[in-house]
What does this fold into?
Amino acid sequence: MPFNFDFNNSLGEIKEITVNPIGWRGPLTIEYCEARAHDYDPLLSICWRVKGTQHTFTIYEKRIIKHIKDGSYKTHFEDILQEFAKEYRSWFEGKNGMQRCEWRDEYQKEYGTLIL
It folds into this structure.
């Protein structure tokens, strides 16, 4: 299901980075910030989304630090978007029962023109 985070609730400035993940029409601009994504979260998260969309991806800040190289989140964003594109395409193949899911249609509205 899509998760929409209000970036006005970030704990700092909203930053942008350009990525070019495989399987997407790119390059894409990613907006990201540090925040408590959910009221019950004990840790800070990095909240991020493709600019112009509402669905927000999150990862705990302590966890992403293990994945970043050269102080940039770019590789993490590209890896997640590449895997997401594969999963997204599988929802439309008719093999997994996702054809009638409302949330699938929400993702299609957000990403249908962006994913190859």
